[in-house]
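Retro notes
What went well: the complex prediction finally ran end to end.
Inputs used:
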Amino acid sequence: MQDQIDSLKADISAQIEAADSMNALEDVRVGALGKKGSVSGLMKGLGGMSPDERKVMGPALNGLKTDVADAIAARKTVLEAAELEKRLAEERVDVTLPVVEHPAGSIHPNSQVMDEIAEIFASLGFDVAEGPDIESDFNNFTALNIPEEHPARQDHDTFYLKPDADGNRKVLRTHTSPVQIRTMMSKEPPIRIIAPGRTYRSDSDATHTPMFHQVEGLVIDKDTHLGHLKGTLEAFLKAFFEVDAVTLRLRPSYFPFTEPSMEVDVQCSFEGGSVKIGDGNDWLEILGSGMVNPRVLENCNLDPTIYQGFAFGCGIDRLAMLKYGMNDLRAFFDGDLRWLRHYGFRALDLPTLAGGLSR
Amino acid sequence: MKFSLSWLKTYLDTDATIDEIVAKLNAIGLEVDTVENPADRLAPFTVAEVLAAEKHPDADKLKVCRVSDGTNEMQIVCGAPNARTGIKVVLGQPGDYVPGIDVTLKKATIRGVESNGMMCSYRELELGDDHDGIIELEDDAVVGSSFVEHAKLDDPVVDIEITPNRQDCLGVYGIARDLATAGLGTLKPVAEARVEGSFDSDVSVSIDDALVENGACSVFFGRKFTGVENGESPKWLQDRLTSIGLRPISTLVDITNFITHDLGRPLHVYDAKKLSGNIRVRVAEAGETFLALDDKEYTTAGGETMIADDAGVLGFGGIIGGDASGCQLDTTEVVLECALFDRIKTAESGRKHGINSDARYRFERGVDSLFAQQGFEIASQMILDLCGGTPSHGFKAGAVPAWDKTVSFRPERVRTLGGLDLPADECVRILESLGFEVSGDAPFVVNVPSWRVDIDGEADLVEEVLRIHGYDDIPSVQLPVIDHKAGLTLSPRQKRSRAVKRQLASAGLYEVMTWSFMRRDHAALFGGGDDALVVDNPISSELDCMRPSILPNLMQAAQRNKDRGLDGIALFEVGPVYADDSEKGQSLVAAGLRAGMNGARHWAAKQAAVDVFDAKRDAIAALAAAGAPVANLQVFAEAPDWFHPGRSGTLRLGPKNILASFGELHPAVLKGMDVDGPMVGFEVNLDAIPSRAKKSATKGALEMSNLQSVERDFAFLIDRNVPVANLVRAAKGADKAHIVDVQVFDVYEGQGVPEGQRSIAISAMLEPKAETFSDKQIEEISTKICAAAEKAVGAILRS
């Protein structure tokens, strides 16, 4: 009997080893351990044995059964591993294939720069104010101390709309300064605002377009003076151009709405065809500014013996060009996708003081 | 405003170099545009002598000259008619650059004869217009010497941009005064002059009362001269004028031009023999015509300040004189005019007729009124000095207006307004040096000189002190920190604009910025083009109307990109559109456009042309970013005319409040704008979105059920024309307590579906409240959905 068991075991072991698929292994299992299987057949013989025989053969047969089951399980693991191996091999893809990329648009440099400017001035306690593009002559000129036929008006190359029934012509604002007027007319000092927006002048070349963007700054309270203007502009330009220090040069100039008035130059270098703000031997004219003219305060019903403050105006497109290195303003308004891809910003490139303004 | 260094030095005693002068001019607000020294470009040219000039063997008009520069002799072929033996000439040799013809000389052979240089004309050296022949120098010119030295050309010319407020610096004297005050030398006084006439002029002048009263012409000084000798002016005067780019004309005219630029005092001279009767300053009637000194004929619009005589128009006062009464080289009798014209009137008339004269330029900025008589006498004296003749007694109409302007000045305002702590006596010194009279104790009473018409108040005096002292010393001061609540820097509208931009860029659209104006006929295609929004003076007819919509600009930008060979175009802009010319007529719109295929051809994705649903998706994304309650939006299959009527819609909050429109652009509109379709677009009116009352940052408690949700699918047949949205709304409303979402996952028509019907498959998400659904409960909800669908849109459940 023991011989028979040994022989069967060897036989089944050989079959298990030979099984090269799960199906074949299953056949072996059924052939051995199934109801009509060889091992089961021997087990059935236990019933006809004497108690003594059973004592010996019982454990032997059970041992056989266990050994066979273990061997099948072991073989199964091997076969499964092989099968998985095979499947994985079959499932291989070429991961060098390009993917369908997430759609990526971009933010226009002007929007980005406006966000940067707002971020900087927010930290200095400024609000962002707005006004309409189509302005009254009063807000764009007269209230700003530029009366009719004033030579300064001729410098503005103003666009006019067709006259209305009363002969009045609205203007496309030539600067963002009318927002100063609107703000002072509607708000009690202290005032700290910037006003970015579209502005219009009849002019066209590489650095002039009939529409462009300006940002206006206005501070009105009781004791703000030129030193504050200088300090504010330094803080702004330093932050905007992300440099350790800027040196400003104020040059006396003339704007009807400020007195004293000055152009502001920033120290820079023009090496290798690009502008570097912060140091160098050259100066770059960057904005116009001054102390708000008492006449303008009066025009806005503010008492100039009590209130004073400064104002400045600066080209946003120009700031963008200087910071990000574009040299043709016309391209800003052309919508050329190649330009937008190159100069645009990712949607998530939100400028913050904490995270930095530019990427 | 141009002047030469030597001219400046007639009023400024200074050792300063040109660089120092330029730096100081910039520092005190007289911005230097250019500095040019003729000596720099003419340095190589020398004085030479023509030793012999013989006819060219093969050319009638050419001469072969033997020329000596003192050391060498050379042969030069010359075409000038005045090239002849013995004259002193200006020689350029091979290698020298001749600026007037933009040529660098080299050895040449002209008609077979070698030529080793060039004898130059004035025009070739950019010293004038004369090109009738080569320059003939004076006999005493030293052969071999530098032409620049001989002609005293080493005299830099400065061009400064005078801001509109500084009329006083439109004469060299005023510039010298500023520089002297700023410490660059000593100001020399203007010569005194007083001409005694010897007879009474037979010509007189009158100013119509109206013009005296409104100040259009407040005073007119006149004087007649007989027996003058006009002709060409002396060389020094010609040199002065040519140095600043003016053309010498005749002595009389040159005198007026000189004094205009020397002292900022415009004048006029009439040929007295051409006058008919007396001079009258009057208001022009409409339709009067005259030929002016610029050789153009002008017709009055009426209202101009006119100088006239009995015969007709003599000129526009303060702007330009007439040709008929102008002085010629042979003029022997002359009337000098020195008058005062109103700034505004002069500007108005000058602008109306497009005349930009030196006189207008000065009068419209405000000429020194108290200087009128002195300027008149200086001019009279100069005429006598240069032209001889006999002067009449002066005659005059009107009166010099009184000038008495005082400003109160507290020197501490330099600190409290200007930010610079400057001693009071330095402030006073600066003001006095500029011609202000300062009296009393602080606050001082400051008398404003008549040439400073720009000074209005104390702030102007602070500026005078600061600009002369220099702005460099002003210390930087930080603004005090104020209480500024975070998040209030931007208005809600600005925040919306920002969010929408970032959202659309993440969705794959590129932000563009396009003109606020466009072609009027294109505007008309988008509901615009009203008269009230037409630009009166557009820069081009392509940009003559304020835009009613951003879409046309995006369409054109898309087309430009297509023309460059790009596809898959997705653009957006957030910006203004204009319904009328009022403030409320401007609204902030986010518009986007897609054209071509969605994405590039790709091995892993099927490429599809953009369609209306892309535009709808963009619009909803923009609205969501702007904070609109998108769950409450209703979709209407009606949209503005510029969209395809069957492939467009509007998104609304209630039937009236249209937040957005979207769709495929109408083929007729595409054609009207000459762009290739199909294109799809959307417009979101950011101003129409109701603002949310934000009370607190908390988001409210979240309720989450642990019970198993159930998804049930239904396929309904509905009429083809029934909007699916109605079916979805009905299904959602069938049992609001339990149905949390309904999605459409299949739309089918064709085989198996009856003609005129569609099969719509929806999936309803059911969420139990108290306990897990029983089969029966699910069955009940399903029945409710079917009933609601049938009731609302006649939907039949497909078996």
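What we learned: Residues 51-91 of chain A form the longest helix (41 residues).
What to try next: split runs per interface for comparison.
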